[in-house]
Amino acid sequence: MTPKHSDDYARMTEAIRFIDMTREEQPGLDAVAEHLGLSPSHFQRLFSRWVGVSPKKYQQYLTLGHAKTLLRERHSVLDTTLETGMSGPGRLHDLFVGWEAMTPGEFAKGGEGLDIAWGHGDTPFGDALILWTERGICGLAFTAEMGREASMADMRGRWPDARYREDATRGAAMLHEIFGGGGNGVHLAILGAPFQVKVWEALMAIPSGHVTTYSDIAARIGSPKAVRAAGTAVGRNPVSWLIPCHRALRKSGELGGYHWGLPVKRAMLAWESARLDASEAPLAG
């Protein structure tokens, strides 16, 4: 990532955070640009290029009613989604994501025998931690709410017996490829209990810019009464964003929880809605 590209990433991360934190006040373009130390015209161009819509339009996606609108207008019923070929366990965010689940035996061993590399990098949703094995990405966490140390401890707790090594350069490059480089495809190596893996597979069927409910997920995996268990499995997803647990909402339209913080979930849903709408219509102010 070039220095200029990195600076733009940092500015857009802060812009998204600031617009979210002040969403009730709905600050104007000048106020947000001033906060970032940019001219209004420069900020408008930069934000529209990165997010796909103007800052004013993006603010609309952060209102409390947006999740309910998503549920009403872009509610993905998973069986229908799969049957129509609208999406599937591969196509996400214009990236082709291949994946494989590790065996129940490997899961039971707590990662014993696994060599896991890790690193941090910038994303549109703040600093992120990425972990991978020779078989693929096994972890992706966002650190804004929890902090770097706690996020790493959280991930280590999932695979306590693995061997860990830092590779800061590769980690930052992988995150740039996922969020800013267009991507040549990524491969996931998922480590979880069989029920969890079924839930994560269902999540991968939700198209970008759409949402589903916890009850739909439970029904999709053949356990319609296990809504709470499905919700817990959603929350234990180790590969955020690429396995899009942020697209699962409560039936009421409330956001529900998010392991890495609700501001991150809200920003992800707004980002995806903005980019989907921008792909379907000319840029609006």
Annotation keywords:
alpha/beta, Arc Repressor Mutant, subunit A, 2 domains, 4-stranded mixed β-sheet, 3-stranded mixed β-sheet, 47% helix, globular
- Give helix % range: 40-55%
> Widest sheet: strand order?
5-4-3-6
pLDDT < 50 stretches: 80-96
Shape: globular
Structural classification: alpha/beta
- Give the DSSP E fraction (strand runs of 2 or more residues): 15-25%
CATH top-level class of the largest domain: Mainly Alpha
Tell me the name of the CATH homologous superfamily of the largest domain: Winged helix-like DNA-binding domain superfamily/Winged helix DNA-binding domain
Overall pLDDT level: 81
Over the alpha carbons, how many angstroms does the gyration radius reach? 19 Å
- Could you name the CATH topology of the largest domain? Arc Repressor Mutant, subunit A
Q: Span from first to last CA?
A: 30 Å
Major sheet, described briefly?
Answer: 4 strands, mixed
Give, in order, the helices and strands.
Answer: HHHHHHEEHEEEHEHEHEHHEH
Number of discrete helical segments: 13
DSSP strand count: 9
Provide the number of structural domains.
Answer: 2
CATH architecture title of the largest domain: Orthogonal Bundle
Description:
- This protein has helices at 3-21, 29-36, 40-51, 55-61, 66-73, 78-84, 104-108, 148-158, 168-179, 194-203, 214-220, 227-235, 262-280; strands at 91-92, 95-101, 115-123, 126-133, 136-142, 163-166, 186-190, 212-213, 248-249.
- Helix 1 (3-21) packs across helix 2 (29-36).
- Residues 80-96 have low confidence and may be disordered.
- It is of the alpha/beta class and 285 residues long.
- The radius of gyration is 19 Å and the shape is globular.
- The strands form three sheets. A four-stranded mixed sheet has the order 5-4-3-6. Strands 1-2-7 form a three-stranded mixed sheet, with no helix packed on it. Strands 8-9 form a two-stranded parallel sheet.
- It has two domains: 3-70, Arc Repressor Mutant, subunit A; 71-275, Arc Repressor Mutant, subunit A (Orthogonal Bundle).
- 40% of the residues are buried.
- The protein is 47% helix and 16% strand.
- A hairpin with a 2-residue loop joins strand 4 and strand 5.
